[in-house]
Amino acid sequence: MIRMVDLKTQYEHIREEIDRSVLDVIASTEYINGSAVKKFQAELEAYQQVAHVVPCANGTDALQIAMMALGLKPGDEVIVPAFTYVATAEVIALLGLKPVMVDVDQDTFNISLELTEAAITPRTKAIVPVHLFGQSADMEPLLALAKRHNLFVIEDNAQATGADYIFSDGTRKKVGSIGHVGCTSFFPSKNLGCYGDGGAMTTNDDDLAQRLRMVANHGQNKLYHHAVVGVNSRLDSIQAAILSVKLKRLDQYNAARRRAADYYDAAFAGMPQLKTPVRAANATHVFHQYTLVLREGDRDALKQYLAEREIPAMIYYPIPLYKQEAFAAYWPGGELPVTEALCRSVISLPMHSELDTAQLDQIIGAVKAFFG
Ligand SMILES: *Cc1c(COP(=O)(O)O)cnc(C)c1O
């Protein structure tokens, strides 16, 4: 059976180790902030090569806590790409900040540097690059721009855990460890996913790490002393134990995703109707999604055609953020042409660590048959 994300087959391969880890937590009764959480935190710090990982309940909370801990205040402007998942902009609006939506690059689907620069005003306080579909935004010029304007860089790394960004001097860094703070999600379908909700923030700034921990824990700086109004956002021990098992295999899982993407790319190479994902020279793509742009043909008809052959496909994302009813107040003025075109023409094919050649051939055959 072909699934968008095959968590079942993945689980079957690691079942013994997962089950044992979960049962160990249950027997330990350390359900909240237990040793499994501290263990995973240290493992992720080593993997990400960051000084601090602050676990929390989900990726949306991670973004919210980051913005609270950075001291962003109502009226402050935060620049985000218009082509992303709603969570990125949602927390900004929720905190009374103003999401300023800018268009994206047509090849990488990531935030446009030129348009980010053009959107900066005296009220701008932060930029949130999203490493969409598993590929890093172009961080080096973005960091330089942020530095020139004294802005925070909050990476939305929900879709790209394990991806590298390569600086012009050859230095490689894990995405999420490049800006002032990185925010990630362990939602089950993400590249590093648990079996429920989970998230984390990453930073190299000791003071910021302390504030992130405080905000995530009811604004508490000492037991029953609350310095700021915070939230309650925790990664539970069972999820942390599962994440420890899966983190060991993350590079292998991401390599399997890349192999599947290579296979798709080769099969679609001669087709003028399709644009396959563009891989930036300065990033390693971890293919959270394998997203095609249709140059011709009806995207929704292709999705329907595949569905009739029991092949799932998804549209990430069908509507620009500013056209969502909830975000009408943040309309950037005029349509953003790249975001509009992508919302009309993208389609994501099944992509996960367990895809085999027979499944890939079936998917590719159906896409080719659609175009005749
Ligand atoms: C999944 C996702 C989030 C939110 O993560 P949750 O854990 O579901 O709250 C935020 N941003 C992006 C780009 C995402 O894909």
Can you describe what's shown?
With 372 residues, the protein is an alpha/beta fold. It has two domains: 7-101 and 109-247, Type I PLP-dependent aspartate aminotransferase-like (Major domain) (Aspartate Aminotransferase, domain 2); 250-371, Alpha-Beta Complex (Aspartate Aminotransferase, domain 1), CATH 3.90.1150. 39% of the residues lie in helices and 15% in strands. The chain has a seven-stranded mixed sheet with strand order 1-9-8-5-4-2-3, with helices on both faces. Strands 12-13-14 form a three-stranded antiparallel sheet. A two-stranded antiparallel ribbon has the order 6-7. Helix 2 packs parallel to helix 8 (237-247). The protein is globular, with a radius of gyration of 21 Å. The model has no long low-confidence stretch (mean pLDDT 97). The protein binds pyridoxal-5'-phosphate (PLP). Pyridoxal-5'-phosphate binds next to helix 3 and helix 4.
Brief write-up:
With 372 residues, the protein is of the alpha/beta class. The protein has helices at residues 7-28, 35-48, 59-69, 87-94, 113-119, 139-148, 206-216, 237-247, 250-268, 299-308, 337-345, 357-370, and strands spanning 52-56, 77-81, 98-102, 124-127, 152-156, 164-166, 172-174, 181-185, 199-203, 220-222, 225-226, 274-275, 290-294, 346-349.
Under CATH, the homologous superfamily of the largest domain reads Type I PLP-dependent aspartate aminotransferase-like (Major domain)
End-to-end Cα distance: 24 Å
SSE order, one letter for each helix or strand = HHEHEHEHEHEEEEEHEEHHEEHHEH
The average pLDDT value, as a whole number, equals: 97
CATH domain class name of the largest domain: Alpha Beta
CATH architecture of the largest domain: 3-Layer(aba) Sandwich
The fraction of residues assigned to DSSP E strands is 15-25%
Number of domains: 2
Q: Report the principal-axis shape.
A: globular
Oligomer: single chain
Question: For the report, how would you describe the main beta sheet?
Answer: 7 strands, mixed
Uncertain segments: none
Question: And the CATH topology of the largest domain?
Answer: Aspartate Aminotransferase, domain 2
Coarse structural class: alpha/beta
Q: In order across it, which strands form the biggest sheet?
A: 1-9-8-5-4-2-3
Cofactors, ions, other ligands: pyridoxal-5'-phosphate
Q: Helical stretch count?
A: 12
What level of helicity do the residues show? 25-40%
